[in-house]
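SEQUENCE-TO-STRUCTURE ENTRY
===========================
What this section holds: a protein sequence and its matching fold, both as plain text.
Question of interest: how does this chain fold, as expressed in C-alpha cells?
***
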Amino acid sequence: MRFKSILKKKREIRILLEKILPIKIFRTLFTIYGIIKRPQKSFSQKGEDIIVHAFFGRRPQGFYLDIGAFHPRWISNTCLLHQSGWEGVAIDLDQYKLNVFKLLRGKKVKTIHSAVVPYKQEKSLINVYKFFSKRGWSDVDTLDLDTAEYLKQNGRGDYVIDKVPSIDINSLLEKLPKVDFLNIDIEGLDTDIVTAINLNKFKIDVILFEDNKNYGGQPLLIKKLKNHGYFHLFTSGGSVCFALKSSIIQK
C-alpha cells in the first residue's frame, strides 16, 4: 500500500540519520520537528475520527455506515475515512444534507433519505422532529418526541414535524456489504438502535454511538456488546465507541 511504503521510507530515513548524525544534532532536529509539525486534522466534534482512523491502521479501504450523517465535513466522524479512500452509505432525515454528501463525496458514497429505527414499523412513513428548518443545518433532528420536547425546553427553539420513510437497522444491514465502521448519531435513539442489531449475524468491526445520559454507555448495552466479543475502545464526551476483538486478530 502507498501509505505503508511512505511510512517505511520515513522510518528508513530516521534510522539513517540516527547512524550518521551526532546525538546532540539528532535530538535538536527532533525537538524542532516536534515544534513545527502540524497537528493531525480532525473533522469530528471531539476527535473521535482520529482514534477510529488509527484503530484501522489508517488503511486506505473500508466501508462505513453513517446514520444521522448531518454534513460530509462539519463535525463528521466519517470524513477522515472518506479522505483515506473508504466508501460508504450516509443516511439522514434531510434530503438537502444528503445532496451535499453526493456533491462532496461523489461516487464513494451512497445516500439514503430515511429514518433508521430499531424494529420494523407498521407504517411506511413516520414522524420526525426537525429544528432550525429555515437554516437547514440542524444537528439535533430526532425521531423521538420526548427528545424533541426536551431540546425545545432547553433553548433549541421550536421544531416542525415532517414524515420520512423508515427502515429497521437489521433490514438495512442486510442490504449492505460488510460494515467495518458504524457511526450513529440520531439524538436519543442511538442506544436503542445498537441494542437491536443482530450481532450474531452482523460482525461490525467498530461501533460508535452517542449516549449523553450514561457516560461510557448504558450498562445493559455494554454487557451485550462484551458478550458478543466487543471491548470499550474509547469515550469522548457523549460519544461511546466499541470495537470487535476479532478484528484486531484479523489485522
